[in-house]
# Entry
Amino acid sequence: MATRPVPTPSDLPEPPELAELDVVAEEAGDDLPPGMPPGPPPDEPEGAELTLGEHLNEIRQRLTVAVLTMVLTTVLALLFASTILDYLLEPGRQALPEFRPIYTELLGFIGAYIKISLMLGLAGAMPVIVYQIYAFIHPGLTRAEQKWIMPIVGLATIAFACGGAFAFFIGWPPALSFLLNFGQDIADPQVRINNYIDMLTRFVIWTGIVFELPLFLMGLGAIGLVTSKRLLGMWRWAIIGSFLLAALITPSIDPVTQTFVAVPTLGLYILGIVLVKLVENRTVIPVIESELDDEDDDDEPEGQPA
# Structure
C-alpha cells in the first residue's frame, strides 16, 4: 500500500507579506458601491474621539465665549433698559391713564431695571449660546441628526418668539385692564414695579413654552409614542386642558383673558396633530424592529425553516 509523502516545511507555501494584504484590502475597497466614500458608515459620527481633558477644555472655551457674549449684550441692554421699561409700562397706561407704578424698597426700581437688562442680554446672546452648544455636540451627531437639528432649533426659537409676542400684544392688555379697573370705585391700584415686571415676564415665558406644543407632539409622533388618530380622539380632554392651562399661566382670572389664551392653545394642539400625521409613518421604532427581525433571520442555520 503506497503512502503519501509528508510535506516538509520547505514545501509549504510562504505566508503573504503585509504589503500584499494591504493591496488586497485596497482592491476590496474598489468594489464599494459608487458614491459611497471609504471610511466609517454615513450614519456614524465623524471626527476623531477626544480625550476627557480635551472635552473639558473645549467646554471651558465655549462657556467662556457664551458668558462674555452675554456680559456684552447685558451691558448694551443697560443703555436702553430705561426706554424698554417705559415701553413695557405702556399697556398699563392704556388700561388706566393715570397708571404709574411705585416701589416700596430702596432697591425696588433698580431690581426691575437690572432684571430687564439681564433678560434683554440673554435674548441678545441666545444665538451665540445656541451655536456654541451645537458646535460642541456636532462631531458626535450622525449625518441625519445634523440635517434635522438646526431646523428644529430654528422652529423652536420662532415658536417661542411668537408665543412671547402673542402674550404681550394680545393676552396682556385685556388681563391688565381687568386687574386695574376691577374694584376701582373702592380702592386705588398702587402697583409695585417689581410685581408688574414679574407677572409680565412669567406670562410671556410660559406662553412661549406653550407655543412649543406642536413641536413637542411631533417629536412624540416621530418616536412612535403617539398617533394622530389617538390625539384626535382626545379632543374633549384637549379642550379642558387648554382652559386649565390658560387659567394657570394667565395673570387674570376673568374668562375673557383665559379664552384669549385657551383658543390659540387648542389651535396649537390641532397643528400638532397635523405634524404628527406627517411624521408618524416614519417612526424609528418600526425600523428598529425590522432590523432586529432581519438579524434573527440571518442567525438561523441554513437549511432550517424560517
